[in-house]
Hints:
- Helices cover 45% and strands 16% of the residues.
- It has helices at residues 9-16, 20-28, 35-47, 54-61, 77-92, 106-118, 134-143, 166-179, 195-210, 225-238, 250-262, 296-312; strands spanning 66-71, 96-101, 123-126, 147-150, 160-164, 185-188, 217-219, 244-247, 272-277, 290-293, 320-323, 326-328.
- A six-stranded parallel beta sheet has the order 2-1-3-4-5-11, sandwiched between helices.
- Helix 7 (134-143) links the parallel strand 3 and strand 4.
- The longest helix is centred in the C-terminal third of the chain and has 17 residues, at 296-312.
- 41% of the residues are buried.
- Mean pLDDT is 91; it is low at 58-62.
Amino acid sequence: MHVTTRPTILTVAQEAGVSTSTVSQVMRGSGRISEKTREKVLSAAKRVSYMRNPHAAAMRSGKFREVGLLINQIANPFNAEVVAGVSDRLESDGYLVFVLDTRNEAVRQRRYLETLIGGARGGLLWVPASDTSRDDIDLVVAQKMPTVSFLRQIPGGHFDHVGIENTAGTRDATEYLVSLGHRHIAYLGGQGSVDLRMQRIAGYTEVLEESSLGPPVICACHESKQAGAEAVTVLMTEHPEITAIVGNGDVVAMGATLGLARMGYVVGRDVSVVGFDDTNEAVLWTPPLTTLSVNAFGLGERLAQTLIDRIQTPDAPVRSTRLSARLTVRGSTGPVPAR
């Protein structure tokens, strides 16, 4: 017989020959049920392929064990490593993580926020889209859902935040390049006035100003290897004096090394390139990428722990955590070439 409805507690009760209340108690692990009856109910549940609805149980108890993670460009290796750290930490505490990629689009973000809130998730980890509206922020605030913003901090002090010391990181990278003798240094990657990008550009420009190295050369592009390769071709054609590049992230920096190689430059000798993130791929790249290490997996764990802390102590003061980025020197950088 073809079954057109999913098995329920009633289905199990009929199969086991017991009451629905007995099945409910067995599934919840409550009540005074004999071992024989318990085994009979569990066997019946297995035969009819019954699955307990954890969402319905959460609705009854008020304890939701599902967390939504809204992130931008999950295909980026940095984000993938963050997601892995988040998932490992939350799942060790019994939480299920739902990952949604907003692609930095406000309309998509709104739809996902409504979906997560409508599903009564137990918490939200959120990389806000660059043009997030006040309405979106008010929507999340009104739900009283434990929320932690990541990378981009939402003004107003409503939510805990985990981020990176972006300006200090690119300062270190640019100062390192200056110490190698580079005097013509460009910044490559990212688009628009997104906080993270502007903070990183600020560190770069501060060092140029302090070292009297002239106006900054900033080249915007999408965060992908292909975009980095194409943009660096334009950059070096328009500014052949450039001997070093600070990338907005590892992905665009790797793309830059590919573009430079196609133009005949030897990366690390003719042009130095620094990334940001230290993804797993960076050390395996050719040449291995000098970058600012932030331990993406560890960042994900910290993000998850911050949410767990908020769930456990909802009345604690809102806190903001920014982790430092450590310069890791590899083969993609070297002394300024003699031209």
